[in-house]
């Protein structure tokens, strides 16, 4: 029987962590553990927030803190779907719930372009993090060619409303964007 209780428990624990006054380093450390626990079992995400789109990766809002201190988003990647090179401007923790994802990280060169600084594949249960202090520019893509992958992202703000950037890696040119969310509803945490 599927239940959203793990998501509710995650939201409560993260709210407690934020309200404890934790700095970013502690949020990333303790938050990673919480995200790891959330994605350790793939039995709680309602199907409505797990649907791929034939063309575009999907960003379903699962929860937004009323003070916009954090947000929780389900990213659903169809085969071949990939982000542009982008930043976040706030901390973010990513846990893979289903399938596999490839992340390529970038660093800015002296000339102002972006060059690859790392490359890895995360399987289900794997967790990674970004932030302006530890490295905030990357691409993410579905590492599987035959089915969707799903990751749960937690950000230190209401990510769908934050103005951030996509980059032309070769030139370093930055274009502002606001991602929004594809969904008009959120899960009932109390169902
Ligand atoms: Fe990202």
UniProtKB/TrEMBL annotation:
Binding positions (Fe cation): 86, 88, 138
Keyword Manganese: no
Keyword Iron (UniProt): yes
InterPro entries tied to this protein: CDO_1, RmlC-like_jellyroll, RmlC_Cupin_sf
GO MF: ferrous iron binding; oxidoreductase activity, acting on single donors with incorporation of molecular oxygen, incorporation of two atoms of oxygen
Similarity-based family: Belongs to the cysteine dioxygenase family.
Name of the protein in its database record: Cysteine dioxygenase
Annotated source species: Pseudothauera rhizosphaerae
């Amino acid at each position: 029987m599927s239940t959203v209780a793990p998501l509710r428990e995650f939201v409560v624990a993260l709210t407690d962590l934020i309200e404890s006054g934790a700095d970013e380093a502690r949020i990333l450390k303790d938050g990673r553990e919480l995200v790891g626990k959330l994605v350790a079992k793939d039995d709680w995400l309602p199907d409505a927030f797990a649907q791929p789109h034939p063309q575009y990766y999907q960003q379903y809002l699962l929860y937004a803190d009323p003070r916009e201190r954090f947000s929780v988003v389900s990213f659903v990647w169809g085969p071949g779907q990939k982000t542009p090179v982008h930043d976040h401007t706030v901390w973010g923790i990513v846990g893979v719930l289903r399938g596999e994802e490839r992340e390529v990280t970038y660093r800015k060169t002296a000339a102002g372009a972006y060059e690859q600084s790392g490359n890895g594949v995360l399987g289900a249960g794997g967790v990674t993090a970004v932030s302006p202090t530890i490295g905030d520019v990357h691409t993410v893509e579905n590492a599987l060619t035959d089915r969707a992958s799903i990751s749960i992202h937690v950000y230190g703000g209401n990510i769908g409303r934050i103005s951030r950037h996509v980059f032309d890696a070769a030139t370093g040119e930055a274009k502002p964007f606001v991602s929004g969310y594809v969904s008009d509803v959120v899960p009932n945490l109390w169902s």
